[in-house]
Amino acid sequence: MTSQHDDQVTFFEAVGGEETFTRLVRRFYEGVAADPVLRPMYPEADLGPAEERLRLFLMQYWGGPHTYSERRGHPRLRMRHFPYRIGAEERDRWLAHMRAAVDDLALPPRLEQPLWEYLVHAAHSMVNVPQDARPPAVNRVVTVTDRSRGDDDEGETISISLS
Ligand code: HEM
């Protein structure tokens, strides 16, 4: 049964607080460190400070302490990413390392799902290469009607699953 107290627990607390975000971001940056496309994008030789910024941002976003904004001001994340070319490849690599990191947390689905959906959406919103600004192909079904055969029927409906 859900008590009133449970309703007031933030997502940050529900997933295990700071320790969980520390594990998530550490695992994610292990992937970035070994990634030949993403690693050269990071201006600093030491990935530690970037890891700390992402960790503090995610903690704040999910209801934890506001240390990120105290140190960095308003997130303005899309603007802060403008100096970097983020196309579909960069987004999908970022998400692949994040997926591995989320998997490692082994959260219950009711917590994992909103976290993952947020990350997919946020990563896509960072894309700044116009021709790549299509949503990622996650569980997307496209229906097209083929009228190219020139006959009199209604055409053939084809469903293509892009998941
Ligand atoms: C889509 C692929 C992405 C790429 C390739 C990417 C790459 C980068 C790079 C190169 C930096 C500069 C390193 C630094 O100074 O911290 C950065 C900073 C940052 N990124 Fe991303 N990023 C991506 C998506 C995201 C997403 C989805 C989020 C949030 C959910 C995020 C949060 C941050 C934060 C908080 C910073 C530090 C901003 C600051 O305070 O200066 N990034 N990112």
TrEMBL record:
Cross-referenced InterPro entries: GlbO/GLB3-like, Globin-like_sf, Globin/Proto, Globin_bac-like_CS, Hemoglobin_trunc
Keyword Thylakoid appears in the UniProt entry: no
Keyword Heme: yes
GO molecular function terms attached to this record: heme binding; metal ion binding; oxygen binding; oxygen carrier activity
UniProt cofactor(s): heme
Binding site for heme: 124
UniProt entry keywords in alphabetical sequence: Heme, Iron, Metal-binding, Transport
PANTHER family, A to Z: TWO-ON-TWO HEMOGLOBIN-3
Family: Belongs to the truncated hemoglobin family. Group II subfamily.
The name this protein goes by in its record: Globin
Source organism per UniProt: Thermobifida halotolerans
